[in-house]
Amino acid sequence: MSRLAAYLGPSAPVATIVEQGTYSLAQLARSDADGWGLGWYPEDGRHDAVRLISRQPLWTETHHLELVRRFRSRCVVAGIRSVLPGQVPEISGAQPFASGPYLFHHVGELSLFREVFERPLRERLSDRYHRTLSGLTDSELLFGTWREALGDRSGADAMADALEQMVSAVQKIAHANGTPASFAVVVADGTSLVALRTATHGVPPTLHTIIANGEAPIPEGARAVSSEPLFPGAWTALEVHSLTIFADEGR
Question: What is the pTM of this model?
Answer without folding.
Answer: 0.93
